[in-house]
Amino acid sequence: EPKVLLADDDSSSEEEEIVDESNVASEEEDEALPEEEEEKQETDAVELAFKSDGRYHNKQRCLTLSSRNVTSRYRHLLEDLRTLIPHNKRESKLDADKTLKGGIGAAITDIAEMRGCNSVLFLECRKRKDAYMWLGHTKGSNGNGPSAKFLVENVHTMDELRLTGNCMKGSRPILTFDSNFDEREELKLLKCLFTDVFGTPRGHPKSKPFVDRVMGFYYADKKIWIRNYQIMEDHAANAKEAHEQKKAHGKAMATSLAEIGPRFVLNPIRIFRGAFGGQTLYKNDQYISPNVIRSMENQNHGNTYTIRKDAQKKRKTHVKNIVVPEDPL
User: Fold this and answer.
1) Closest CA to 181 of 148, 155, 124, 220
2) Which residue did the predictor score with more confidence, 233 or 199?
3) Neighbours of 327 (CB within 10 A)
4) Nearest to residue 170, comparing CAs of 83, 280, 294?
5) Which of 12, 22, 36, 176 has its CA at a distance of 20 to 30 angstroms from the CA of residue 145?
């Protein structure tokens, strides 16, 4: 395209000389680019994705509370989760009236707004037998939500297990997810919820600047299995052991995991667009309510009498049909 110059512009000749010099310099730089790109690729593999200034920017707060009539096992589970979540805000047991507008969900969102919390972990106990865990967001760019409802199964608290693992209270965890959380769409959403609830923000006043534990989330049998481990580094006692470990593992010290607890299983039920309600984004078709399971077991117990009576009738008819031959003697 022709270059347009102003009437009082005398820099045309100077610019042509600058362009010629820049072309020569660019050719020299292009020759040096492949070597620099190789060095950058090597360094990018080591450097972090982003550099943190160490300040407290991610001000996530999680509201943790339970419903009334919660049993001791689930109460201890909630206390264990509070120790694992330093950025939690405690709240007393919720006793909201279900007949009010919005129900329990509206009451929880109001409490979270007053306490300045972004996420909520609500443990709901029904019939003093079944526990349901709610995880959800109460603040966001698109309003409240999303939220997820789980059935808590196979609960084992820290005091009950008494495992050998131990960690510093308030330390930040490494959250690990298996490959299913990157393949299934509903698990991608749950991964974000787990990260916001269980991931301790860097620089939180109640957290410690140490990473000495790992929280694992594994998807198997249509359920999410949650475990908590301690990172143990075994240093060699002498030079011979250090040489053997370095020869076997490539390092002078061996790293292993020891389970801390608690351990529990979350059976996903539904994922909602809003906070504790709204449009259903995902529904687990293989989920069976504990009430249905108990009713089927009671029916099976009630059928024992009919089964026994049928067996007696069959025995009587079998005895009558037996014909014993007469003894000739």
Assistant:
1) 220
2) 199
3) 5
4) 83
5) 176
